[in-house]
Design brief:
By secondary structure, the chain is mostly beta strands. 6% of the residues lie in helices and 45% in strands. The chain is built from four helices and 46 strands. The strands form eleven sheets. A six-stranded mixed sheet has the order 2-19-21-20-16-15, with no helix packed on it. A hairpin with a 2-residue loop joins strand 15 and strand 16 (262-269). 54% of the residues are buried.
Length: 671
């Protein structure tokens, strides 16, 4: 089997159809959720000739962008000036960049170094890829993540000794610029840290770089220019946390990942420091003067005004300005966009952050997916549903201090979530949705890095025709799961060992859908989602489902647990689910808790749910309650030892992890 075939999936699509040649794949237990419906309600697999799923020839008519790498920084600047002159008006640029004078970061102090802008996966793993809980010490859970070894930032987490969470400054939905450190034994505050003003004002998310280093990242909006902010906190003494270093980066945060102490940051920035003017009055003369002035500003511009910059501060307040990207590693698309999506890395292992300039492409990168070796940014230009296209750029991040653009490509349709992408050994798998003949249809596309291009090598159309994708889970190089839904939740198993000719292997149809899937044992998946009326598609409440995919030609739903109403944060944010020591936990909002207490209390309560699997059955550990003034607040769960903790925006609760019986709860400080 060639390397491409070995890298390719066997796609399990919770939608409808079947096919030949079952594949037996072992799923190692991993932390994540998704699934749904009872096996007795399942229907037999349809024949391979089912017209609902067809294999199309690869669609080569996708409207792709062509990216080129200028031969030098001077060539890059010349091209940018040409694009800028063409797009400048009396009021700034005409692509949404307005003539607001950037507040800037300032100039380096004398003697501070500024890096020059000079010239410049192994074999496929057999273990389950995809969502995984980051491995931590045996006594505590860690943040639920998509790819093993690729850390993610979230609002509440633990290192086993303390619980760290972000708090709104004033009220439930205002900016969160303070960090609370909590003692898990007593639930009392160890410390509350307000970030410095220049680092605050955005929605903070956290990650532990190691047991004594907490990282805080946020996007700080500004009238003048958005800033990506990263702060490094020493929490060795949790009663006296300190900010040891911080970074401010010009741009808007697309996403960030943490790999071996390196924070990989993807951000979108626009030109800065261009001193445009606007007409002084409504006369044509004044308009012409503004156009001439703005054109001259572009002609006199330097490369530093087009590409993002950054500032790093140490604990003593010393500040150093740096470039975020190497201009010799900046690619241009055949478009007039003057924005740039950059990918750079920040080393957090020292007390002072170290920024390694990376690479960039022009255009607005909407979202990111990251494996340990590739970060894929994609932009989704506005278009009609029939003509929607996602433009992908793969950055090589395998050497964090030498990030480069690896390959670019496009797929037809809308990519709605990072879970719809997967990369391993240069093979990229995607699931997208577009309109065909007035019906919504989904497609799986397999691309391979060939030189600097992501070339489609396999394609499967009509996944869940007239249905929407609810979840995607790429499990191994040979196996993936896609869930679509309108009235029922079918499951496709698809053999793609030959990437040029994926084949349907089996199908399961069930009511409702799973919005998140999580491997929980050998050949088993846990689904988190919604019950639904099979005739109308009307959702009826939260449910867990347990799936067996040992025989991909005959996937089965082993068991289901249904709740009368409500939904889980995990349906929308996988950080809302915890799988630890073969047990899963989530919080359900909007659930009728009248049976658990007075109705007036129930209206202001969240349901804390625990689950485990036992011989193909779902066993409830118990149901607890979290009383909160504001109701559902995107609560997150975590486990330390034999205790379960639930942290919402305003309340923290402590429970027995084996019974989910509440032991204590307290309100969190709001100001």
């Amino acid at each position: 089997m060639n390397r491409i075939a070995a890298a390719l999936l066997s796609l399990v699509t919770l939608t409808a159809c079947t096919g030949p040649d079952p594949i037996n794949t072992t799923l190692t237990p991993q932390p994540s959720d998704e699934g749904s419906a009872r096996s007795e309600r399942s229907e037999p697999a349809v024949s391979p000739s089912s017209p609902r799923l067809r294999l199309n020839a690869i669609d080569h008519d996708v409207k792709s962008l062509t990216y080129t790498k200028p031969q030098s920084c001077d060539d890059l600047l010349a091209t940018l000036k040409t694009h800028g002159t063409k797009n400048v008006t009396a009021y700034g640029f005409n692509d949404g960049i307005f003539p607001v004078q950037d507040i800037g970061i300032g100039k380096p102090a004398t003697g501070q170094n500024e890096p020059s802008r000079g010239d410049e996966q192994a074999a496929v793993a057999d273990s389950v890829a995809g969502s995984a809980q980051a491995a931590g010490p045996d006594n505590h859970s860690d943040t639920n993540i998509q790819e093993e070894g690729v850390g993610e930032f979230t609002t509440s987490l633990t290192n086993g000794k303390i619980i760290a969470t972000v708090r709104p400054h004033d009220g439930l939905f205002s900016r969160s610029d303070r960090i609370q450190l909590i003692d898990p034994e007593t639930l009392e505050d160890l410390a509350t840290l307000d970030l410095p003003k220049e680092l605050s004002g955005g929605e903070i998310k956290l990650a532990f770089a190691d047991s004594s280093t907490l990282l805080a990242i946020s996007n700080v909006p500004s009238y003048a220019a958005s800033r990506v902010v990263l702060a490094r906190l020493d929490v060795q003494d949790p009663k006296h946390p300190t900010v040891t270093s911080s970074l401010r980066l010009n741009g808007y945060l697309s996403g960030a990942r943490l790999i071996d102490g390196q924070v990989i940051i993807a951000a979108t920035s626009t030109p800065h420091g261009l001193a445009f003017k606007t007409p002084e009055d409504q006369s044509i003369r004044s308009e012409r003067e503004a156009i001439d002035h703005n054109t001259k500003v572009i002609e006199d511009s330097t490369i530093d005004q087009w590409l993002p910059d950054a500032e790093i501060a140490d604990q003593q307040g010393q500040r150093v300005q740096q470039h975020v990207v190497d201009c010799n590693q900046t690619w241009l698309a055949d478009s007039d966009s003057l924005a740039f999506t950059s990918v750079s890395s920040v080393d957090t292992t020292g007390s002072t952050l170290t920024l390694h300039p990376g690479a960039a492409v022009n255009g607005y990168g909407d979202r990111i997916y990251s494996s340990s070796s590739r970060l894929i940014s994609w932009q989704q230009p506005w278009s009609s549903p029939q003509e929607s296209v996602a433009h992908l750029v793969s950055f090589d991040i395998s050497t964090p201090d030498h990030i480069r653009v690896k390959a670019t490509g496009s797929v037809k349709g809308q990519i709605d979530t990072t879970w719809a992408l997967d990369e391993q050994d240069g093979i990229v798998r995607t699931a997208s949705t577009f309109e065909d003949g007035g019906k919504q249809v989904s497609r799986a596309t397999i691309l391979q890095e060939q030189g600097d291009a992501l070339v489609p090598v396999g394609q499967l159309d009509n996944l869940g025709r007239d249905e929407e994708i609810k979840s995607v889970r790429w499990l191994t190089p040979e196996l993936g799961v896609v869930v679509t839904f309108k009235q029922t939740d079918p499951v496709y198993t698809i053999d793609t060992r030959d990437p040029s000719s994926p084949k349907v292997a089996g199908e399961l149809k069930i009511p409702g859908y799973s919005a998140y899937l999580h491997p929980v044992g050998d050949h088993q998946l846990l689904g988190i989602g919604q019950q639904a009326d099979p005739e109308t598609g009307q959702t009826k409440g939260f449910k867990y489902s347990l799936f067996d995919i040992r025989d991909v030609a005959n996937p089965k739903e082993l068991d289901v647990r249904e709740f009368s109403g409500g939904s889980s944060n995990a349906e929308y944010d996988h950080h809302g689910f915890t799988w630890f020591n073969d047990k899963g936990y989530t919080v359900i909002g909007g659930y009728n808790l009248a049976e658990h207490g007075p109705e007036e209390t129930a209206k202001q309560s969240l349901l804390v749910s625990g689950i485990k699997t036992d011989d193909g059955k779902l066993v409830e550990l118990g149901r607890g309650e979290l009383r909160t003034e504001y109701g559902y607040e995107g609560a997150q769960t975590m486990v330390i030892g034999d205790k379960l903790f639930v942290v919402s925006r305003t309340v923290i609760g402590k429970y027995d992890a084996n019974s989910v019986a509440q032991e204590r709860q307290r309100e969190l400080a709001q100001n």
